[in-house]
Predict the 3D structure of the following.
Amino acid sequence: MTTTNHPLSGRVALITGASAGIGYDTALHLGSLGAKLILNARRESRLLELAQRLSDQYPTHDHTPRAVVVAGDTADDPIIDQMIGASSHFDQQTPDLVVVNAGRGLAGSVLSSDDSQWDEMIRTNLTGAAKLIRRAGSALADLQSQREWPRGGAADLVILGSTVGRHISPFSSMYGSTKFAVGSLAEAARRELGPQNVRVSLIEPGIVRSEFQSVAGYDEQSFGDLMTRFAPVLEPMDIARTIGFICAQPPGVHLCDAVIRPTRQDYP
């Protein structure tokens, strides 16, 4: 049973890329709303620290862990199977809320970006996302087929895109192309899974302050100037609150797309 303060009570959420940034704060926020969590990223030590923090801050009534960890590459099929299967820790056959968040950036255009990094970025941002959408989408549809609609509850597949996937910009067009593709996958999955009582939501953030920028290799001076011009830029928790709001809606209410920018960000 859900309450006003814990609208996600009874739900199990899987979050990829949970060791930092948007994924980390989404885990904290969904935990505060009552969800139990399956956390994935490559950095196991960070995930274990987060799982402990969640259990300490949001203890469960039955004294089971608030979160469990499945570390590894989200584009690897065995890891995907382990993530879906980890819901058994919470006596549930599959997660009913999946956040496809793992990804990385890359500075530069198709002409100027480091092409030695293309394969890894495409594997993480596109291939890994597609594999999880496929696996989780099937699992969520199977789950909903066993439930009475809409009384049985909501099932959510939340996919992280980007404003540079909606409005391609030369300063990051190779990265943007992967997010453009992810947006297409999200809309196609929505059309396929919506009639099966599964909500698919695409989140497209603008500039969010996190370690993402340094990993992507953006020029510190020019990108810093951009963030100053758009200040205050978004924080990861701003995206997490939006995800929580979407997933807490009644099962028959579907917020399909959310573009979130700092108020002063005019482009992209």
